[in-house]
Structures are given as C-alpha cells and as structure tokens.
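Residues and backbone
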Amino acid sequence: MRSIRVASVATLLTLSTLLAGCGDDGDGDADEETTETVTVEASTETTESTSPTDTASPTDVTPMDPTDTGDITQEQVEAALLTPEEVGPDFLLGAYTDESSPPLCDPEGTPVDEQVPPQVQGGTQIDHNSGDVAMQEEIAIYATEEEAAEAFGLATAGLACTEGSSDGAPVTIGAAQDVTAQVNGASGIGSSTAWEITADGFNGVVVATLAGRIVLATQFASAPQFDTSTLPNPVDVATDAFAKALAN
C-alpha cells in the first residue's frame, strides 16, 4: 500500500502495496462476505524495509522539533514512528517499503515526492496478527515550511476526486474530513485531514497532517469482511502518531 507516501505524502495514497494481500482467499478472489466499512470518527475519549533493529530507541535520540529550522536526522524520524505495541496488542511489525506512487486521482501523474523532494523521510508498516489489516505511517521532513505546504497541497489535490485508480484498480474516495481538533488539538500545532478509501478488496482510512516542515500520514486498510469494531480508531492512531512525532 504505498499510499501516502507521506514522505511526500506523495502518495497520499496508493493503497496498492499494503492492500495487495487484503481480502485474498487463497485463490486470488476477494472474499464476498458482508462488509463492514472502516469509518473516520472522532474519539469520544481523550527504498528499504524497516525492521526492529533499524529503528532507534526514543531514549537514544534527541526529539525532533517541527518548528526548528535546523536539520532533522534520519534517526530522529525513525525514533518518532509508532511501534506495534503503541498501535494495539494484536499488531506486529510488517515489511515497509519506501517507494513512489502517483496520486489516486491522477494515476499517470508524477509522484509528489518527485515534484517536491523531502529533506528526510521514514516510515513503518504495522500488521494485524489476523493478516487482514495493515497500518502504515510515514513522516516526511522538508527543507522549509513552504515546501511542506506545497507537497501537502499536491497530495491532497491528488485525493480530491470521488473515483480514482490504484495500480489500475478502481477506488472510491470519500470527501475530505477536517480532524484537526482531534489530531492537533493537544498541541495546537498544524492541521489534519482524513479520507475514507474503498475498493473491491479493501476498506481504508488515511489521515494526513501538516505541521511546520513535517508531513505525517497514517493509513489503515482492512479486508472487507474484517470486523473493524475491534480495531483502534484510525483518528486516535493518527493522534498518537503526531504526539509521538512531536515529543518522542
């Protein structure tokens, strides 16, 4: 699902890689059971795979500051990513691949990170132990706030349609939802937007945040037959991801 190449948010979507295995019944056909859609809700309560050995411990790295004009290191970005334990008890580290993907609304277009390259970026994939759900987080740091805003604008424009395409497969994109109050409310920094993405083989939610020089995106995707009521709320996960990015 290299979607949201948060890294350039550039993908702010391409749910293809992550979702490739979702809903597969073993012979290549998607499960046709009754589906339960992943929905965006505000909580009522307050070019390489990344492995556990690749991610620095937050205690070993000085936290990054999105308002700082200095350099942010790869180690700081990696340390700011969520761990499986921080997502939920039934999640484990998956195989994350850093790759560029065109916008869902413009499948022939240029990936955002090629138009506005980030200064440094990192990501992780976290899978549910059922094999039917995957969560991906990506953080991209740009040289300036203006470049981050430009990349974020291009990425969100790439989701501003109702019907898109991922690797040739049609997807439906829901209207953008402002979730700033939930994701950014505690810090008062930045803004966040969420989209629901659906296709024959998956249901998904993407949340993207712009804060200073940072663009952060989280993405949940699940097989249509999976009971998503047992999962963490995607907006809550995005809130946790942004809080950790700010403070480790």
User: Anything to note?
Assistant: Helices lie at 16-19, 74-79, 84-87, 112-115, 145-157, 180-183, 234-247. Residues 1-38, 42-59 have pLDDT under 50 and may be disordered.
